[in-house]
Design goal:
Layout: E1 2-6, H1 33-45, E2 50-54, H2 64-73, E3 77-82, H3 90-98, E4 102-108, H4 114-121, H5 126-142, E5 149-156, H6 164-174, E6 178-183, H7 199-216, E7 221-224, H8 230-239, E8 256-259, E9 265-266, H9 272-278, H10 291-295, H11 302-308, E10 316-317, E11 342-343, H12 345-358
Parallel strand pairs: 1-2, 1-8, 2-3, 3-4, 4-5, 5-6, 6-7, 10-11
Antiparallel strand pairs: 8-9
């Protein structure tokens, strides 16, 4: 069982596309260290395998070093997202990399140059972040931490679209293990921005990634999460190329849960409003209640039942005719529109092109 935990909404940046932009700075009643200790003990008791810390910026908490130590005390594996700006202290860096329960550091970077990255994340960010990534890479090698995965996250959008291939080579050359390409979502700070790629741009990028993948795959894992798994078949049949494995899975309410900065437990961060509507918020605070008592409350099973029900995707096009459905792909049930209809346009275009080739 995995937990995604927004450990704080403090942040030292205010990025253009931040999906949690509406929450940044809302730190009243944020969990204190003692409450975090209680929560980690409870998560250990229910045998949580992995916790990933987000925010906000996790390292903006003054007690983050102590929190990292608590994962060791409770023997829970963890990872965290970071903009990397607060990793300049050599002692802090070393203590992080030496933490045997730390399994993943995800650095947020939006382009291979200061001009591209800083236009999204803020001035003078690129140099500090990339220098600190290099230092962490050195420490990983020094301490022989093969089990520690270093990742760069990039949100694919119209600003950096033409630089994604350069970004992949940059990630390879700087020495990280993994490159994750995320879809731009019009929420939070990004809700007023028109930066979503067109279908044509998405498919063009799929092709470009396929051509560079063969050159980097032995040194860099690529997770193209801006596109659905159908892209693998599309690339293979259209260009006779390999495309990195991608997936769209939902285990919400079963093997995945979400915690916010107040310690409120939800089946998914996209299902908060529904849970708050059905339940007294005092009943969902993990520091004050037992995990499975919360997970048994009204609404916690709904998102899992939606994704598993055989009729859930009948009105999703072209999911209802896709061989990847419920194997590698579970389109988010929390995003199901009221009328139940949804069109995944990039997949529709790829499927149409595949059918055209097959019918020739």
């Amino acid at each position: 069982m995995n937990i995604k935990w927004d450990i704080t909404y403090k942040c030292n940046l205010n990025c253009k596309h931040c999906i949690n932009g509406d929450y940044l700075g809302q730190i009243e009643n944020e969990l204190c260290f003692n409450e975090i200790q209680i929560i980690l003990r409870k998560l250990h008791e229910v045998k949580v395998n992995y916790i990933h810390l987000l925010g906000g910026e996790p390292t903006a908490r003054a007690d983050i070093g102590k929190i990292f130590e608590e994962f060791c005390i409770n023997n829970i594996n963890f990872g965290f997202n970071t903009n990397g700006l607060k990793l300049t202290d050599p002692t802090f860096r070393r203590s992080i990399v030496k933490n045997i329960n730390l399994k993943n550091i995800v650095f947020s970077l939006e382009g291979p140059t200061a001009e591209i990255n800083d236009s999204i994340r803020g001035k003078k960010v690129f140099e500090i972040t990339t220098n600190n990534i290099r230092e962490i890479v050195k420490l990983k090698r020094e301490f022989k931490r093969e089990d520690l995965v270093l990742t760069i996250n990039t949100v694919v959008n119209k600003i950096n679209y033409n630089y994604i291939i350069d970004m992949i080579y940059f990630a390879k050359n700087i020495g990280v293990d993994e490159m994750v390409l995320l879809q731009f979502i019009q929420e939070g700070n990004g809700k007023e921005l028109d930066e979503t790629l067109s279908v044509e741009q998405e498919i063009s990028l799929v092709k470009d990634i396929a051509y560079c993948y063969k050159e980097v795959k032995n040194d860099l894992s690529i997770r193209p999460r801006f596109i659905y798994p159908l892209a693998q078949k599309y690339v293979k049949e259209m260009y006779e190329l390999e495309f990195p494995s991608t997936y769209s899975m939902c285990g919400a309410g079963e093997n995945f849960f979400y915690l916010n900065n107040k310690g409120e437990l939800y089946p998914c961060d996209r299902y908060k409003d529904r849970i708050n509507l059905l339940n007294d918020k005092s009943k969902i605070k993990l520091a004050d209640n037992e995990f499975w008592d919360i997970a048994s409350l009204k609404g916690y099973e709904e998102i899992f039942e939606k994704s598993e029900h055989k009729n859930s995707y009948l009105l999703y096009e072209p999911c209802n005719n896709c061989e990847y459905l419920r194997i590698e792909c579970y389109p988010c049930p929390a995003l199901m529109p009221a009328n139940g209809e949804m069109k995944v346009r990039a997949c529709m275009q790829m499927m149409e092109e595949l059918e055209h080739v097959q019918n020739k």
